[in-house]
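Hey, can you fold this one?
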Amino acid sequence: MHRLQTSRGRWAYADWHRQAMEALTGTPVGRAVRRLLVPMLPRARYFPDFLNPHESAEGLEQGLAAIVDTPPERVARETARFGREHRAPGWAPKLVERENREELARALRAYHDAVVAPHHDRVCAEIEGECALRAREVLDRGVHGLLAELSPAMSWRAPVLHVDYVEDRDLYLGGRGLCLVPSYFCWRTPIALADAALPPVLVYPVQRPAPAAVVPPPESSLEALLGKTRAAALRALVPGATTSELARCLGVSPATATHHTTVLRDAGLVASRRLSNSVLHTLTPLGAAVLRHPSRSVPSVPAASPSL
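Sure. Predicted structure:
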């Protein structure tokens, strides 16, 4: 919702923004967005925390159910704060009534189906690549190494994680764990829940390069892609693997593994990221789609084991 309300960073979401506007303009979903969602989810310092339920970690339906099931007293408390800190819609207090929260949840589901679901593979590929990268950092450098490289908007000076934020505030964990949530649509500035009593969550933007021009892969790359060994390499990269791990998995030299990943990357099937002194390879949405295509039979190989 916030990406629709600002031009900041729009270059990074240009294709999505164009398709989203096409799906919303002049449609019932678009009217619901203007009437219900934008007023309740503005780009502001505060909007109700119950609209970002912890249960959404289990999926969209669980998150929407949690919004509907929010206790009325919490809804009243948070909408009252919303009214004090921002220009909340006059009907916001009526969300204490369950049927009004159900209407809001239906609008959220319709919005998701119209402008988020069509980009599911791309979003998941970005998130899975980020999770693979951060998991390797924990294995190689521990939690301190993870926090030190998490985002340009954060700096780790033990025992405090300093975050560029919209306001000056301190969040004390008090022995609670911090749930780190990489987000495809978060831009530059991380986001946390306003109520410090809720489970601590920090949403941060996935690091990704500027989008390159979409150029169809040359025929030579597609022809070179065919073959048993390279298909096995593609399957081995499902969980992410470094060049040396891929070489061990395939039983080839690192130089040969590098050649395979280069061809896969040139064909748009694999993305590569620098990780300390190695390179981590993960699938792109196109690479994942190739593996899922029912007409393709890709040999299965054991997943690469991380270097401990």
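The radius of gyration is 22 Å. Let me know if you want another pass with a different chain boundary.
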